[in-house]
């Protein structure tokens, strides 16, 4: 796919309009204006979004992933100078930025812990593959978000949809995993689209090579890792949870924890990982004076460290003359893994968050079960929120998915409930759950749903 040719095609609109925006810029605006994107302000990145501390939520995280994605392409454009990008790479700043905005748009309230619950529920339904956040994001922009009555989705260009497909394959029937090395950014182990979006998937992947990611998708994925490794780390240093000024005491435990978690990755080298752990322990220890983020000195020094990391990770990408057209320096990938491990060690795999997540699992599980029961019993009941009824109706109207849902009411109800939950904020999910369980002290007045 080359920039500016068939990559600008849209499935539902072949008209060429002369305007101040090109087709890729239209994609970006369509995502930014969608309610599905706005609701990410109410979804956690790691911890709950209602904390008094100013932490990243999925919206601010997505904005930074989009910005970093754009900078990566700009860096490559600057480095390529007069030579330009390789023919067929399709690299484009607006395309990769839009992919960054979209990459988490389908993730449910409470993030990955809710994904597990939904996957367990859907895996028990005949005809459905389970749940995958990346596949749900693809479903949102191709089916659930609406701009026009005559077709579903945001009607994004082929190039943008291909960039959104971080894992460009359907769920393997044999659950086979990729045999590529973990540092090979051209491949990934997960899957990125449901069978119900097969037509959109095939259209987006036209002229792509097998399960190889597009160059834009690779850069978006790398930008996601960069943001996780830098901005999330700042959050939890500010919150007093990660003692960046004094990592030395936990250095060996950090390494062992990371090694247990990452050793399953094909080609993972524990010595290179240990080397990067040592580097960042020394870097933070030399630079930060104390655990208190709010001292002027620490703020300045932390900003300098983050800036150095961002600069290094941007420069870590290089152009290739053949697919997938870009690669990422391996040392930088190990550095990012080491930085991400600090959040895993001090925040994610700790009782305060783990106990909180246990409650979140119950919220999502109970919400799914109650909505499913109501919908299966009577899809037109006033007990069903109007938006959920609309999603259920539109599934029946989706000609491309008839093979999955036409004679399978259970699958249709389960998919509709899942789609609905994935369009809620965390506060909405909690409130609706309480109302369905009879534990809410709120009245019928001022409700957010209808």
From TrEMBL:
Residue ranges occupied by any HD domain in the UniProt entry: 58-229
Keyword Hydrolase part of the UniProt annotation: yes
UniProt keyword terms in alphabetical order: Hydrolase
InterPro entries the record matches: dGTPase, dGTPase-like, HD/PDEase_dom, HD_domain, PHydrolase_assoc_dom
One Pfam match: HD_assoc
Region described as Disordered: 1-21
NCBIfam families in the cross-refs: dGTP_triPase
Name of the protein this chain belongs to: DGTPase
Organism expressing this protein natively: Amycolatopsis oliviviridis
Gene name of the encoded protein: dgt
């Amino acid at each position: 796919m080359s920039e500016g040719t068939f990559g600008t095609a849209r499935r539902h609109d072949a008209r060429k309009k002369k305007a101040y925006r090109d087709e890729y810029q239209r994609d970006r605006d369509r995502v930014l204006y969608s309610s599905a994107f706005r609701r990410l302000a109410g979804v956690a990145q790691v911890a709950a979004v209602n904390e008094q501390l100013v932490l990243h939520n999925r919206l601010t995280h997505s904005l930074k992933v989009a910005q970093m994605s754009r900078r990566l392409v700009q860096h490559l454009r600057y480095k390529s100078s007069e030579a330009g990008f390789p023919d067929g790479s399709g690299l484009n700043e607006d395309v990769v930025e839009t992919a960054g905005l979209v990459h988490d748009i389908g993730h449910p309230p409470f993030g990955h812990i809710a994904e597990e619950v939904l996957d367990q529920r859907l895996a028990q339904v005949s005809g459905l593959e389970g749940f995958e956040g990346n596949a749900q994001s693809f479903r949102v922009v191709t089916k659930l978000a609406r701009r026009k009555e005559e077709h579903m989705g945001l009607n994004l260009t082929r190039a943008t949809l291909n960039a959104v497909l971080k894992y460009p394959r359907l769920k393997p029937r044999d659950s086979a995993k990729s045999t590529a090395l973990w540092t090979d950014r051209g491949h990934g182990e997960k899957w990125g689209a449901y069978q119900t979006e097969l037509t959109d998937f095939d259209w987006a992947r036209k002229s792509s090579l097998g399960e190889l990611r597009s160059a834009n998708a690779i850069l978006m994925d790398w930008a996601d890792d960069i943001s996780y490794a830098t901005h999330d780390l700042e959050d939890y240093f500010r919150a007093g949870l990660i003692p960046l000024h004094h990592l030395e005491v936990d250095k060996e435990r950090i390494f062992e924890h990371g090694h247990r978690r990452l050793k399953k990755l094909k080609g993972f080298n524990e010595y290179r990982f240990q080397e990067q752990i040592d580097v960042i322990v020394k870097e933070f220890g030399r630079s930060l004076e104390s655990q208190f983020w709010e001292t002027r000195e620490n703020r300045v020094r932390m900003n300098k460290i983050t800036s150095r990391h961002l600069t290094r990770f941007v420069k870590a990408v290089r152009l290739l003359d053949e697919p997938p057209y870009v690669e990422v320096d391996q040392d930088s990938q190990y550095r990012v893994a080491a930085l991400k491990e600090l959040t895993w060690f001090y925040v994610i795999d700790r009782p305060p968050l783990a106990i909180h997540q246990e409650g979140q699992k119950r919220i999502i599980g109970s919400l799914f079960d109650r909505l499913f029961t109501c919908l299966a019993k009577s899809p037109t009941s006033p007990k069903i929120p109007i938006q959920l009824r609309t999603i259920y109706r539109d599934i029946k109207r989706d000609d491309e998915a008839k093979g999955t849902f036409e004679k399978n009411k259970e699958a249709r109800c389960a998919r509709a409930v899942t789609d609905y939950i994935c369009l809620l904020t965390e506060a909405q999910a909690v409130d609706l759950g309480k109302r369905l369980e009879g534990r809410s002290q709120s009245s019928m007045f001022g409700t957010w749903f209808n």
